[in-house]
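[job 4471] stage=fold_predict status=RUNNING
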Amino acid sequence: MHLFAFVLMATAMTTAIACHPGPVISTGPKQPANGTISGMVSTDTNAAVGGRKVTAIDTQTGAKFEATTSSSGGYTMKVPEGHYRLELELQAGETVVKQPEETRINRSDLDPQRNFVIRLSPR
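[job 4471] inference complete, writing C-alpha cells
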C-alpha cells in the first residue's frame, strides 16, 4: 500500500512539473510572430558589443520580446504586428548615444537597422 501511494504521488509530481510552461517572456494576447526586428549594438568607437539583451516592448499591450546580441553585436527577434519601443540593457557606467525610434511592424515586415550606439565610461 505504501509503495502504491509513493508511485501515485511521484506520478502526480512529474505530471505537474512536465506541464509547467517555464518562464514567461511575453505578456498579453498570444499572436503569431509575423514580423522581424533586427539591428546592431556597437560602441561610439565602432566596436561590436556582444551578449547584451535587447527588449522590444509593444506600446499598446506591454508584451515583451527579447534577443541577445551575438559576438558581432547583431540581434534579430520575431514579433507580432504592433508598435514597439526598443530598450537595451546597459552595464554600469554606460550611456546610450544613439537609440532607434519607435518601430511599427506590419504583417511579414522586416524592420532592420534598429541600431544602438553606446559610450563606455573611461576606467
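[job 4471] summary: The first strand starts at residue 35 and ends at 43.
[job 4471] exit 0
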